[in-house]
Known about the structure:
Blueprint: H1 19-24, E1 27-28, E2 36-37, H2 42-51, H3 57-69, H4 71-96, H5 103-117, E3 121-125, E4 128-132, H6 139-157, E5 163-165, E6 174-176, H7 189-205
Antiparallel strand pairs: 1-2, 3-4, 5-6
Helix pairs in contact: 2-3, 2-4, 3-4, 4-5, 4-6, 5-6
Amino acid sequence: xxxxxxxxxxxxxxxxxxxxxxxxxxxxxxxxxxxxxxxxxxxxxxxxxxxxxxxxxxxxxxxxxxxxxxxxxxxxxxxxxxxxxxxxxxxxxxxxxxxxxxxxxxxxxxxxxxxxxxxxxxxxxxxxxxxxxxxxxxxxxxxxxxxxxxxxxxxxxxxxxxxxxxxxxxxxxxxxxxxxxxxxxxxxxxxxxxxxxxxxxxxxxxxxxxxxx
Length: 213
Ligand SMILES: [Zn+2]
């Protein structure tokens, strides 16, 4: 049996333009044999949250210690994180394809938001107010709260035609297209864009009889 590559939760490219999509991009190749999941335990979720700056370093340390001391808490965080991630991924993918998210997924997002708000504090910020979470009040909510809020803000306040899924084969990553003319197609040009270009080039160069793809 092939050993899975180590989790890259702490080094994944953050190309989603929004926290919610960076979070969905902690898995790739969903449903394909090349599938990789970088969230494999509660600690991976904390590692990603620090990497994506959902948690400040100090809060990351607090969350890490709380999870290390309570395996049930770590397991619950992972289960909630994966359910939220897949809910946001389904929602984003269906919108990118021109469809409408299911009522079940909208309800799941609403329920997670409500659960996270029980640990949030309305906090002054730059002349206004924001929801803020402290890891000590609940490490799961401190991580999943900002992610859920990002997803809900996208759904309620953004131009949905900018929500896109990478066109790379078996990629599945989501991003919010902030280009002026909404022309972005790839998660990363250097990864999926070039791969697609090379594939098209090979198809053009190969004699027809040898075409197997
Ligand atoms: Zn891609």
